[in-house]
Amino acid sequence: MQSFAITMTSLSIGFSGRTIIDGISMGVPKNSITMIIGPSGSGKTTLLRAVNRLNEEFAGCSTSGTMQISCSGTTLDVYNDLTFNELRRRVGMVFQSPNVFPFSIQKNLLAPLRVIHSMGRKERYQRMEQVLREVELWDEVYDRLNDNALTLSGGQQQRLCLARALALSPEILLLDEPTASLDVRSARKIEELLIKLKERYTILAVSHSIRQVKLIADRVVILSGGKVVRNLEHRDFQNPGLLEELVDEVF
Ligand SMILES: Nc1ncnc2c1ncn2[C@@H]1O[C@H](COP(=O)(O)OP(=O)(O)OP(=O)(O)O)[C@@H](O)[C@H]1O
Ligand SMILES: [Mg+2]
User: Fold this and answer.
1) pLDDT of 65
2) Protein residues with CB under 6 Å of any ligand 1 atom
3) Could you give the CA distance from residue 47 to residue 24 in angstroms, rounded to a whole number?
4) If you measure from the C-alpha of residue 211 to the centroid of ligand 2, how many angstroms do you get, rounded to a whole number?
5) How far apart are the first and last CA of the chain?
6) Is 226 within 8 Å of 220 (Cβ atoms)?
7) pTM, entire model
8) What is the number of helices (H) and of strands (E) in the chain?
9) Which atom of ligand 1 is nearest to the CA of 208?
10) Range of the domain at 246
11) Phi/psi of residue 14, each to 5°?
């Protein structure tokens, strides 16, 4: 039987009484890439934010149903069994618009490692270099690590945010359009990286690119009006034209 890292059951989310996620039940298989596609406003970001309970930071948010994550062999109900800190250590997220902290590039990585993992200085610097190399940013920033992270380009900031999520060694990675602000070459690098990363992580990502979905997804979820209209396995969406046809119908 397939083992799921995330299991949602009858999950509904509303903001100020307006239903945005409408009774979704689905599983996200471990060590795989599941990609969500759907029209703007269909609830993709809201669905990602349900996994790490970020929606609850907004006033007027109501949630019903269950959300479980399975980490290190244990299944945990995210609403009842984990503190926010424990949940966010296990579940990393990279946002649609990069949210670097307005201090130095290195502090963006070193501070969370110190606070959350209580790592010593040498270990932190090693981990920083390792993740910056992993996201192909090291060569661009190694000689300006003390510059403010806001001086980086949009694509560099996006890679820094991915590096920051990886640095904390989560088990689940939520990626909201991870290549949206990258050029073709950088996007390809990140796509190659994600394929490697699924050996260690479970990835749930939003994408607007059918090319990208076909290239790297193991499973595709098509969302429309807060409902899952299709949940396709790899063999289904490799049929030439099928995904394009479904997207044409839904969008
Ligand atoms: N904090 C919030 N308060 C009120 N409404 C919200 C909130 N967050 C999202 N919504 C609403 O929920 C709906 C879905 O938003 P969401 O950001 O999940 O869409 P999306 O599919 O990610 O769209 P896009 O492709 O444009 O990023 C939208 O109508 C949006 O206005
Ligand atoms: Mg979105």
Assistant:
1) 97
2) 15, 20, 38, 40-46, 58, 96
3) 9
4) 18
5) 33
6) no
7) 0.94
8) 10, 10
9) 25
10) 4-98+171-250
11) -130, 155
Residue 57 lies in a domain: yes
The beta-carbon contacts of 195-202 under 8 Å, at least 24 apart in sequence, are 195/33, 197/166, 197/173, 198/31, 198/32, 198/33, 199/31, 200/31, 201/31, 201/170, 201/171, 201/172, 201/173, 202/5, 202/6, 202/28, 202/29, 202/30, 202/31, 202/32, 202/34, 202/171, 202/172, 202/173
Residue 26 is assigned to a structural domain of this protein = yes
Do the domain assignments include residue 138? no
- Per the listing, tokens 């690590």 go with 145
Q: What is the DSSP string of 140-172?
A: HHTT-TTSBGGGS-HHHHHHHHHHHHHHT--SE
User: Tens digit of pLDDT for each residue in 13-63?
Assistant: 999 999 999 999 999 999 999 999 999 999 999 999 999 999 999 999 999
In a domain, 203, yes or no: yes
**What's the structural domain count of the chain?**
1
- DSSP code at position 208: S
Task: Tell me the C-alpha distance between 177 and 98, whole Å.
Answer: 10
Contact 88, 57 (CB under 8 A): no
Among the listed residues 192, 173, 172, the one whose alpha carbon sits nearest the alpha carbon of residue 182: 192
For a mutational test of ligand 1's pocket, the pick from 16, 24, 44, i.e. the residue with the most ligand atoms closer than 8 A to its C-beta, is 44
CATH of the domain at 18: 3.40.50.300
Place of tokens 């595709």: 220
Question: Which atom of ligand 1 lies nearest, measured to the CA of 43?
Answer: 18
- Please give the Cα distance from 31 to 4 (Å, whole number): 9
**Whole-number Å distance between alpha carbons of 117 and 14:** 34
